[in-house]
UniProtKB/TrEMBL annotation:
In the C-terminal section; belongs to the class-I pyridoxal-phosphate-dependent aminotransferase family. Keywords: Aminotransferase, DNA-binding, Pyridoxal phosphate, Transcription, Transcription regulation, Transferase. GO terms for molecular function: DNA binding; DNA-binding transcription factor activity; pyridoxal phosphate binding; transaminase activity. It comes from Granulicella mallensis (strain ATCC BAA-1857 / DSM 23137 / MP5ACTX8). Residues 88-109 are annotated as: Disordered. Pfam families: Aminotran_1_2, GntR. InterPro entries: Aminotransferase_I/II_large (IPR004839), HTH_trans_reg/aminotransferase (IPR051446), PyrdxlP-dep_Trfase (IPR015424), PyrdxlP-dep_Trfase_major (IPR015421), Tscrpt_reg_HTH_GntR (IPR000524), WH-like_DNA-bd_sf (IPR036388), WH_DNA-bd_sf (IPR036390). Residues 19-87 form the HTH gntR-type domain. Signal peptide: none annotated. It comes from the Bacteria. This is Transcriptional regulator, GntR family with aminotransferase domain.
Amino acid sequence: MPKMETFQDLSLHPSTNQKELWRWLYTELRAAILDGRLRAGTRLPSTRSLAVQYELSRGTVITAFDQLQAEGYIRTEVGSGTYVATGLPDGPLPTSRSKPAPALPQSTATLSKRAQAQLKDVVVMPAPHSVGKAFRAYEPAIDLFPADLWARTAARVLRRAPRSLYGHGSAGGYQPLRRAIAEYVGSSRGVRCTPEQIIVTSGAQQALDLLGRFLLDPGDSVWMEDPGYPGAWQTLRAAGARIIPVPVDQDGLNVAAARKLSPRAKMAYVTPANQFPLGVTMSADRRIELLQWAAEAGAWIVEDEYDAEYRYFGRPVAALQSLDRSGAVIYVGTFTKMLFNALRLGFLVLPLRLVGAFEAARTLVDRHPPTLDQAILSEFITEGHFGHHVRKMRQIYAERMAVLKEAADEHLGGLLDVTNAAAGMKTVAWLKTGTSDKAAAAQARRLGLEMIELSEFSIKQPLKPGLLLGFAGCNPDELRRGVSVLAAALRNPPALR
Ligand SMILES: Cc1ncc(COP(=O)(O)O)c(C=O)c1O
């Protein structure tokens, strides 16, 4: 039988804390057994010699052995010694110490045909390792988020939370949060609703998913702004919708063109306050035209206002929902951009006739949103912190936009024409005609910038070459640095053809 008198293979123990020491020894020995460094039948050193060798108390070693024995990794024979158990598989088992299993080839081939079609060109966004990188497009100023205030609010809410909040929550969301949202969208966006019309969701994305699943049948046509938001068209397409790309001009979605393309569409998806990605505001005439069409066609209008709070100049325009008299508009809002991405809380404002059905539908999806997070957000809003943060960010983002514009005018003149965004957290920058925006963005990424080319957002309509530059999440120094790196990227002509 193999014998182990001394064992040199353990990593150094991390501390002198007795509790951590036995766990360290237990974990090390277990890993050595599982990955085959200690084979079945091997005799372990005595507790006394292990204690001496690793400068542990004997009690620590005995506690680790007891645990390993209780879990069946080792057995003790009285008068003979302690051995690695023989019932374990012979070869190495995967453990955190052994090499990770090779990644499966990236393939959706084993999924259902439906899923394969749904996942066509869906890109998984990696979790970033840092905040504030130029020119990340989907991030608010996380560096300036009042995390201490959030933590204090959370502590207070959790301390006082009645036990009932730990039970099953309500399908539409936590009632005080629904009230707070109804009040906020009413006063700041002119949305007309009662708290019952609010359905709290996991960000705008889940709101869009619910709308696709429960309002569309396979083959239903949906007008989609082109260029537009992939998160919307991919989700609605996954629900079986036939996406009808509709051109966008300086007044927003071209309703006359859409009527010609598909007069009897079931839904229109629009971003009227700040068109994604071009940043135009839908004109009053277009809003009326769109509402008229929806009333005639019995269609839904999905109004996505993910960053409408941030308007820097020009006339603030109330939500399209505020003009709706026929109950066609479904409003989608999100806190992920107004507060921070990881919050994953957003909401739908539904026409009353849909509320009951959506509460039932929610039961099939995730039952209800997490109650305690909602309670914290609700308190954050009602205490006035949310309003204060948004007002502060509006000013900071305007300043950041100005820094970007100034730096771009100075260093990128003739290469890139950066639009002075009237609203939102990102802006469009136009490249010279004939440039490939894909190549330009790839070159910028190679030099370490985060960059998305405009053509990524085109469904079908040809688009002038351009880049999408996020500015809200980057501090002024990072923006200036980003501009000079971008200038270097764009001056590298071979990559741009
Ligand atoms: C048009 C549009 N809608 C919604 C969102 C937000 O989605 P979520 O709340 O799922 O993060 C984004 C993200 O940037 C967006 O660009």
